[in-house]
Design a protein that fits this description.
Helix 1 runs antiparallel to helix 2. This protein is an all-alpha fold and 88 residues long. The protein has 2 helices and no strands.
Length: 88
């Protein structure tokens, strides 16, 4: 995992823990507390999905760059081989 991803994950976990503790110790009624907790968990889930989506996009970009790089190198080797065959 990248360092940025680790930091984001740690911040999200800290945010969720802080929010949950704050809501649980708040002097609201049970229904209100559960609603707030559910909303906080929904927001956390949305944040995690967004972060995961960004990381998946980054991985796909990296994969495409690696594939393009390999194809370029293979084409170069093929061309060198063809040149060697013509000069042999």
């Amino acid at each position: 995992m990248k360092d940025n991803t680790k930091v984001i994950a740690a911040l999200l976990v800290g945010l969720a823990a802080g929010t949950a503790l704050g809501i649980l110790f708040a002097p609201d009624k049970g229904n209100e507390t559960r609603d707030k907790l559910a909303e906080s968990l929904k927001n956390l889930g949305d944040s995690i999905k967004e972060t995961a989506s960004k990381e998946i996009d980054n991985l796909l970009d990296l994969k495409n760059k690696v594939v393009d790089n390999i194809k370029t190198k293979i084409n170069g080797v093929e061309q060198e081989f063809q040149d060697d065959l013509e000069h042999a």
